[in-house]
Specification:
The protein has helices spanning about 10-20, 30-40, 60-65, 85-95, 110, 115-130, 145-160, 175-190, 210-220, 240-250, and strands at about 20-25, 40-45, 45, 50-55, 70-75, 100-105, 135-140, 165, 200, 230-235. The protein is of the alpha/beta class. The chain has one domain (about 10-245): Aldolase class I (TIM Barrel, Alpha-Beta Barrel). The longest helix is centred in the last third of the chain and has 15 residues, at about 210-220. The protein is globular, with a radius of gyration of 17 Å.
């Protein structure tokens, strides 16, 4: 493990912005909402890494974003069911829309039941369906104990995940530093993934201080070379407002939203 270097709130904000997956996954999202999201993604302080939307909006987002901003869309979301055909249909729709990234929910209920084969089969089918795209596997870590977080991480990496992602943001327990550490340790321990796989924190990350905690953790487990959008993402919607406030000099970025 490496000790993270001290960073100013402004430095954290700039890094968080470059690694941000600006997200809107509300049930009632409209085309107008997605267009506003695409506009926000190209702000005064620079672009985000990606915009993450429902598959039905992926083509719209792609048409209204520059090539430098990726489009991500979700599959098997948010329930993480075990219907492989449905997950593959979601994935193919994302591919056909011209998106660059797929965020798929691991069938974590099956994992809780000990059905490792069902998990591997679904993830493998999705990986094959989006060959050439970046695949982020959502573990829904807030629903799993430590051992299952580690096992889910291993299964996702074995299936060819490019990123491990904490949460859907749709259950009460979102991202946690404890689960993140387990996921990062799984990446570091995998000879095929240690130098290439990434980590995405998502679910409850609202302030620059929140982001700083995950940035430090990634650096401590994977090294400073992992601190960039190729290997670090932060999935959020409200975080951008705090990033912009810090970079504009009107916010301190100094309070974590969990109260610590």
């Amino acid at each position: 493990m490496t000790a993270p270097k001290p960073r100013s709130p402004q430095a954290v904000a700039r890094l968080a912005l470059a690694c941000l997956d600006l997200t809107s996954l509300n049930d009632d999202d409209t085309e107008a909402d997605v267009l506003r999201l695409c506009e926000r993604a190209q702000g005064l302080h620079g672009p985000v890494a990606a915009v993450c939307v429902w598959p039905r909006f992926a083509a719209l987002a792609r048409r209204h974003l520059p090539a430098a901003i990726a489009v991500a869309a979700v599959a098997n979301f948010p329930a993480g069911g075990d219907d492989t055909d449905a997950a593959v249909r979601d994935t193919r729709a994302i591919v056909d829309a011209g998106a660059q990234e797929v965020d798929v929910v691991l069938p974590y209920h099956r994992l809780q039941q000990g059905d490792v084969a069902a998990v591997a089969n679904l993830l493998g089918a999705v990986r094959r369906a989006c060959d050439g795209l970046r695949l982020k596997v959502i573990l829904e870590s807030g629903a799993l104990d430590d051992a299952l977080v580690t096992r889910a991480s291993q299964l996702a990496l074995a299936a060819g995940a490019d990123f491990l992602k904490t949460s859907t943001g749709k259950i009460p327990a979102g991202a946690s530093l404890r689960a993140a550490a387990l996921m990062l340790d799984a990446i570091a321990a995998d000879p095929a993934a240690a130098a290439s796989a990434g980590f995405k924190a998502s679910g409850g990350i609202r302030t620059v201080a929140d982001a700083a905690a995950y940035i430090d953790l990634v650096e401590s487990r994977l090294g400073a070379q992992a601190l960039g959008p190729a290997r670090l993402r932060i999935g959020a919607s409200s975080l951008l407002a705090d990033i912009e406030a810090v970079l504009a000099g009107t916010g301190s970025g100094g309070a974590r939203s969990d109260g610590y």
